[in-house]
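Troubleshooting entry. The earlier prediction with iron/sulfur cluster gave an output that would not parse, so I re-checked the input for stray whitespace and re-submitted. Clean input:
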Amino acid sequence: MSTETAAPVQLLNVQIDGIWMQFPKGTRVIEACSQAGKFVPRYCYHPRLSSPGNCRMCLIEMGMPKMGPDRKPVIGPDGKAEIGWIPRPQISCAQDVAEGMGIRTDSPMVKECRQGVMEFLLINHPLDCPICDQAGECQLQEFSVEYGNGGSRFLEHKVKKPKNVEVGPRVTLDAERCVLCSRCIRFMKEVAHDDVLGFVDRGSHSTIACHPDRTLDSNYSLNTVDICPVGALTSSDFRFKMRVWFLKETKSVCASCATGCNTIIGSRENIVYRQTPRENNDVNSVWMCDYGRLNFHQLQSPERLTNPTIKGPSGNEITQWEIALSRASTELKRHRGDAVAIIASGSLTNEELFLTRKLGDALGTKLIDIIPRNAEGDKILLSADRNANTAGARLMGVTGGVPGSLLGLISTGLKNKTIKTLIVIGEDATTTLGEEIANAQLILSVSMLPNGTTKLAHLVFPSVGFAEKRGSLVNKDGRLQRLNRAIQAPGAARDDWEIIRDLLHGVSGANGIYMIEDVFKQMAASIPALAGLSLSKIGDLGVPLKL
Ligand code: SF4
Ligand code: SF4
Ligand code: FES
């Protein structure tokens, strides 16, 4: 056993607006002020990026202990070192606290500095607020009200800069709104590792631009929109679609790869308008990729399946849930054991996968697996495993060590016609098994969108997308996280777990599951890694599982 203990954190005495406090060595002055409840406005500072100190919005008054003739700090009547104030303002974003440091965030000098910086930043800023996407979450608006003086001495004509510039396939620039903070430039260089942006031209004509022959086409480009403190960089997808104050915010996770970035889904009147990253330092820091961010559009597909269907003489005919489920119950009783195969999606929730496993057990089959979905990953966030819950599928026993290893057996069974019943949940089995699935006498498909399998299926049950359901997922690092419902599913589509629960009910009778919490309770009772947990105990940031 190691006897080493972590070195104690050195605490430094710092006076902020007259009150002495202690902060760990290495704390940025701007962060120390926030921790002391004295917010200091900032544009260029971002806690996850380097600090160039170029906007000057974070100016404060600062001082260090006065030294006596003996080169020792002069001690004041309060027993603390007296502070010798530096006669000019200092930026607070690019230096750390020091022993005996004094900080003033609300002195007349600081107020005057902030008013001056605001007036200067607004000299060439256009009056775009009424039509700017950033309105409602714009730091230029907010700080102007909070720290500006409401007036301008600038009588000349404003400099006009390019507007509506497509700097990349997903990002649009309004250059005259830019306050030249360089956050976007630093993000692309330091986090996305694609040094594509820079400043060009001088003085009032200075603007950001892509390097020659380059565009802002990184899979992380939309993070620049998130961190742009003003409305200069906007999402081409979200631009002019919705005022941000109308959006309902739902905390959830991205279900487009095994990383499981934490997100906020912005929706209004049952439509998702945008997805933005939510801070989770154990998963995605404060970033997410463009691919996952924009994947919500499939929810609004005009192709969405909205009613159950039964294959009839004229193709898939719309029917009622009771009729479709009763038909499924009758048909599923015909075959048992390895005459049945189940193919599930590796992006289903744990609850859905748990019930899928139970359905497989009730039907006595071992032929149950997911279809692996691999593509190129990167060393930032995007995982090569594009299934959101491969780890959960393993935990629930829907797949083994190597996902998809039973697909070969299932394919052979379909070829030989020994598989009579094929249940496909959240997947298109034809992508891997081809048209051979048509050899099955009964194909049940649970799907949100039409695909090759729904075309061949005898019964199709319309299901829901990631933003339309609750449930849990396990990411590639074994972190249990929660999906939350932001919008209702269209038409008569139902939660996947309810559909699988009803199929299970048809095969093996009542199962005591009425709510999704009941599913989790059964999971927690039978899977040791989930013991003691519940959906509500997972919390907004998830919990690491001992797998
Ligand atoms: S575009 Fe936005 S993030 Fe980039 S330098 Fe300008 S204000 Fe800053
Ligand atoms: S990295 Fe993965 S989980 Fe994160 S946003 Fe992209 S697709 Fe979604
Ligand atoms: S936030 Fe400190 S100089 Fe910009």
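This one parsed fine. The chain has a mean pLDDT of 96.
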